[in-house]
């Protein structure tokens, strides 16, 4: 069965819009997100525009705070502190990458974890590890939501995570191995967490043998066709986080997007599988919206 | 081969003493640790006394700050903030448990991560996950040191961690799966990290089969005889973190300490194994000393 991330993302956006409309009817203010962008990278501008549009659709008030490329680290840090203490802002994100003269870790670490709706501060990551209330970064939160909406249980299952990045592999492994402390609002009854998790990466030996023992495989390695049919047992759930451009003269833009999974040959064996595009991808902006509303509820409680 | 934690701990204490003597000869001050204790639990008093003694042996200046059981959370929080900004203190710990009217998470989270020589703040845990310079909690740091001193490589090895506690299982899994960012001073050339890690717990199915595929098994489940000989392949490295009291009328105190491993039957199959007592246990205070000196070097740099 193909997991339709586009449909799930649309469902959630509709639910969030209804939730915010209800808040407004109760006389409460709308959640408010600030997006900090430095410089004029066309890619960053597009991402920010998409986020602003998604906020508008569900009723989150969103403001873009644009700064020149020449801004100093110190001035940007001051802006972060200002946003931390601005009571009208429920959450904010700093669009990455930043110019090379600014240390991204310094900036991200300065964000108050309660407003860190990208879930990238060390404080939020540590709170997640310790099972404390926290904000989860976009991709792991989106994958958890897909599993929940398709009622795919994880308790006692063997989950193999391929890739150990800070934004996907490591937080994903942590969430799935945990006791399910963090019950999400609007979530199905599926029990998430409590999985036996193996985390694999470039140094792993005999990846194929490990994958064949998995009930669920989450691939976030950034390597086209890494997961092939011979590595997957019948009935496995396959979540493909990869987004790779490969040349394709026949495609309108000269390239097409593929994941890390050999979809054509793996899909017939998989119980569930996410396509690329249209699987995990559409969930990431939705996670940002959910995180903003979560921060709003905490902030206005 | 039996891993002699007592011997390694003594070696490290001797190295640390030499290091501090050299600092003093250069005219620098000694590292300084503060230990906060609330109330009068005999167990806590003993732990604190042992820590003070260990500090004295290597030349770390240590002060005990004792507060009455009735101290309010707010007053204790004020003390934490004072210690955060006291420039003469390189690191401090708050002896747990705290009285029930004080929220431990609130207190621990308030400690500046640079002075958090127990490595328990969410900020330090998150920094560890993200591969940033951080302070590692005592048991994982001690185990890493044992592996390094015995030159047991972890790169590409399959490590099975049994137990997902905040103080052992989860940080241990994270350290071993990481790229080896965090090279320790005085450490052997053994490559630590870069392992394929499986984390198992009470919900894991067929633990025995998973353990039989392991090159290294780290057991931190708090369950006597959990790991039996049939679960261990020939040549496995076994690290036993368990400390369990079991009744033994023949023992002088009426009980004896055992680990989570059936040592008698597992040891003959293991390439290396830690005993209980005398394996991981003696390393934990040494880790506190190492963390204090690490914080000192960062603080006085």
Supply database-style keywords.
Rossmann fold, globular, alpha/beta, three-stranded parallel β-sheet, five-stranded parallel β-sheet, homodimer, 10 strands, 301 residues
Q: Judging by the overall fold, what is the CATH architecture of the largest domain in chain A?
A: 3-Layer(aba) Sandwich
Under CATH, the homologous superfamily of the largest domain in chain A reads NAD(P)-binding Rossmann-like Domain
Number of strands of chain A: 10
Query: What would the average pLDDT of chain A be, to the nearest integer?
Result: 95
Outline the biggest β-sheet of chain A. Answer: 5 strands, parallel
Please give the domain count of chain A: 2
| Total helical elements of chain A | 10
Weakly predicted, low-confidence segments of chain A: 185-190
CATH topology of the largest domain in chain A: Rossmann fold
What proportion of the residues of chain A form beta strands (DSSP E)? 15-25%
The percent of residues in helical segments of chain A reads 25-40%
Tell me, what's the shape of chain A? globular
Helix vs. strand class of chain A: alpha/beta
Structure description:
The structure is a homodimer of 301-residue chains. Chain A has 301 residues and is an alpha/beta fold. Chain A folds into 2 domains: 89 residues, Leucine Dehydrogenase, chain A, domain 1 (Rossmann fold); 147 residues, NAD(P)-binding Rossmann-like Domain (Rossmann fold, 3-Layer(aba) Sandwich). Chain A is 38% helix and 15% strand. In chain A, the strands form 3 sheets. Chain A has a 5-stranded parallel beta sheet with strand order 5-4-6-7-10. Chain A has a 3-stranded parallel beta sheet with strand order 2-1-3. In chain A, helix 6 packs across helix 7 and helix 6 crosses helix 10. Chains A and B meet through helix 5, helix 7 and strand 5 of A and helix 5, helix 7 and strand 5 of B.
């Amino acid at each position: 069965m193909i997991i339709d991330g586009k449909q799930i993302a649309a469902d959630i956006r509709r639910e969030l819009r209804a939730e915010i409309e209800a808040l407004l009817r109760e006389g409460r203010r709308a959640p408010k997100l600030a997006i900090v962008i430095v410089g004029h990278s066309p890619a960053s501008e597009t991402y920010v525009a998409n986020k602003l549009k998604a906020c508008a659709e569900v009723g989150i008030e969103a403001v873009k705070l644009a700064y020149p490329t020449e801004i100093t680290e110190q001035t940007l840090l001051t802006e972060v502190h200002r946003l931390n203490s601005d009571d009208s802002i429920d959450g904010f994100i700093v669009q990455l990458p930043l110019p090379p003269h600014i240390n991204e870790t310094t900036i991200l670490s300065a964000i108050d974890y309660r407003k860190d709706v990208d879930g990238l501060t060390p404080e939020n990551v540590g709170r997640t590890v310790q099972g404390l209330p926290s904000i989860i970064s976009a991709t792991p939160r989106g994958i958890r939501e897909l599993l929940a909406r398709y009622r795919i249980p994880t308790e006692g299952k063997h989950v193999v995570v391929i890739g150990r990045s800070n934004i996907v592999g490591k937080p994903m492994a942590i969430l799935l191995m945990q006791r399910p402390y963090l019950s999400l609002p609007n979530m199905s009854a599926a029990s998430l967490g409590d999985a036996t998790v193996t985390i694999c990466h470039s140094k792993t030996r005999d990846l194929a043998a490990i994958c064949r023992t998995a009930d669920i495989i989450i691939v976030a390695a950034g390597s086209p066709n890494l997961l092939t049919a011979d590595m997957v047992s019948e009935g496995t759930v396959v979540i493909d986080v990869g987004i790779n451009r490969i040349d394709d003269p026949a495609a309108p833009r000269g390239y097409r997007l593929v994941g890390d999974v050999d979809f054509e040959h793996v899909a017939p064996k998989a119980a569930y599988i996410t396509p690329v595009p249209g699987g995990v991808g559409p969930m990431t902006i939705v996670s940002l919206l959910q995180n903003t509303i979560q921060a709003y509820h905490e902030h206005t409680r």
